[in-house]
Specification:
By secondary structure, the protein is an alpha/beta fold. The protein is built from six helices and twelve strands. The model has no long low-confidence stretch (mean pLDDT about 95).
């Protein structure tokens, strides 16, 4: 990983903003990810994120914390928060913004236990592929204190395969339709392609049940997105 994401966050935070991140996938064209969105306040967040933050309790782990937006809000509420991300630049920015406990760490290398674990902004993305979901869920379950909870969001992107007649053009012999190749570029430099998973709620629920986790639908968004609570 070149950490293009971290470089972009550092530029924005340090007043060197000139352009935004460009993203795309193997089934979608280029799109702009505004850097300002990654520094949004609570009032600017989607209702799914606001709901998740309202449900936070106890000792919190913020997975894929980015610029630390969620962690900062929870700290202000008086909660103890650990923020982790694989991006060194993101962790540097999170610390500079005031996140007290931020660390460059892959979730699979985490060993502490928590009352609430956050995976937001398509939290299932880090699972990468459908066949890895159980591995990640088992590990996340091992990080929960008794009566702990995992708050995770995603989207059912089946709609992206719909044609003008309302039919679907998905290849039934291909992998799960939510498995995407994700591409990112910033200031003309391309990040290494990543695997990124969008998971429909029914599939997430089945995967949770297979590893002994309860999965409840907390809230549905405006565009096929949802927030789930695992316990």
């Amino acid at each position: 990983m070149k950490d293009i994401f971290g470089s972009a966050l550092l530029d924005y935070h340090n007043g060197n903003y000139t352009e935004d991140i460009i993203t795309s996938t193997n089934i979608s064209s280029e799109d702009i990810l505004p850097l300002s969105y990654l520094f949004r306040c609570y009032a600017e967040m989607p209702k799914l994120e606001q709901k998740a933050l309202q449900l936070a309790k106890g000792n919190v782990l913020d997975v894929g914390c980015g610029a630390g937006t969620h962690s900062l809000y929870l700290q202000e509420k008086g909660l103890k928060v650990k923020a982790i991300d694989v991006s060194q630049g993101a962790i540097t920015v999170a610390k500079q913004r005031g996140v007290l406990h931020a660390e460059v760490l892959n979730i699979l290398d985490e060993t502490e236990t928590f009352n609430t674990i956050f995976l937001l902004m398509n939290g299932t993305g880090i699972f990468q592929e459908l066949q890895q979901v159980s591995k990640y869920l088992k590990h996340l379950k091992s990080l929960l204190n008794p009566d702990g909870q995992i708050l995770i969001d995603s989207s059912d992107i089946r709609y992206m395969y719909e044609d003008e007649d309302g039919g679907f053009w998905m290849d039934t012999n291909a992998n799960y339709y939510g498995e995407l190749d994700y591409f990112m570029s910033y200031k003309g430099e391309d990040e290494l392609p990543m695997k990124w998973l969008y998971l429909d709620f029914k599939t997430l629920k089945l995967a949770c049940e297979s590893v002994g986790l309860q999965c409840e639908l907390v809230l549905e968004g405006d565009h096929f997105d949802y927030l789930a609570r695992l316990s």
